[in-house]
Prior knowledge:
Strand content: 15-25%
Radius of gyration: 24 Å
Number of strands: 23
Number of domains: 2
Largest sheet: 8 strands, mixed
Structural class: alpha/beta
Number of helices: 14
Amino acid sequence: MAAGLLAPTMLTAAEGAAANPEPDDPLDVRVVYARPKERQWLGWPGTFWDPESFTGKSRALVEGFGRQLGMKVSFEPAPIHEPAEVDAFVKKVKAERPKGVIVFPLNADEFIAGTIDKIAQSGIPTVIFCGLGMFHTGFAGSVVPTARRQGVYLPSSSDFELGPVRFGMKMIQAAYRLRRTKVAVLRGTETAEQKMEPLGLTIRFLPRRRFPDTLKTIEETPEVVAMAEQYAKAAKKVIEPTQADLINAAKNYFASRKIMEEEGCQGISMDCLGLVGNREIPTPPCLSWTRLLDSGLSGTCEADVNAVMSQEVCLKLLDKPGFIQDPVPETERGTLIGVHCVCATKLNGWDKPAEPFLLRSHSESNIGVAVQVLWRPGQEVTIMQMVGPEKMLLGKGRVLRNHDPPPAGGCRTSVELEIDGPQDPCDTKGFHQLFIYGDHVRQFKAYAQMYGITCEHI
């Protein structure tokens, strides 16, 4: 890869708004430890277990996570246990409305006495770390109902480096960033805005004509030429596109960024097939969307709001892009093939090496520039789609092979997955689902429970 080609770009003021907390809207969490004032005698986690040592280590870890995630972390000055102390804490967080609460029970009795469940019902997203020694199935009735409450993430884990707590904080950060994110969707002729609850993402609908009108203002600047040259050098091979195609594709990127900046948006989608079909733009925006995705911003095909929501959740929660695709059942092998002309190359994450790619034309029109990304055989994959802001489809798969077009028809990136169901791939639910590197089903389910989204298998 050409040096720096696919590195994240400098965020504009509008784009940074989704990432940087403001004084009047802090990204803050409260941390509380639950235990009686006297040293425990008998019971779990055991008299040998040192709560002071755990408190010191966990506090340092959580403070470090807060710095990494840009969160303000506040600790209760003393552990709580007595009913009056618990009631006072719940009353305080209800009044102050932090973005999340982190609870460390320091003995099993805090579950049995109802302390933890009372905090879990505060209405604030709550992360409860149930370390090994705090819970066994003999008193599951005191723990499992709490763990299954909406708004709660309760990992029962032996990870005393607190990876699950960091992920809980990451969920809180993702929800915060989604509520501060606006995506421009260019379709039709109307201008409107819609908040997608409970997700919190804002969709800014703009007339489709806005894109070709903006594109006319983009000149062949040194930056445009440099982007075209960088992609030509980074590709394993350039097959159909000409230099003029690459220049036009780069202009699309700068037109997209201009619209996003003017509208205070951190992502963009549009009725691209309509514009291409009417020959209103010289090349589809495929390469522009790839560039945005590899920079941590969403570029989404076909003004598909479900796909926009899916991609934004993926970007914010996992710090990597997914592949929005048209699902094709392979009935002879019982597999699923995902195809599209937009695919990020930074499938492993923005701080990881890009996957190899070829530069191709947009398949349906055979004009412009699209990437054909070569997926890694054997790679575990998560399948995810938001169906409206309240429902999430989930599944898992494994990459079997890439398909070349031709001999295949369809879109340029074409990847076949062995999937975990349904048995007949023709019964697969959804359209424009994301294929995402890695097994992230558990993380998506946790996020859905925390923020009131239902889950269903694909």
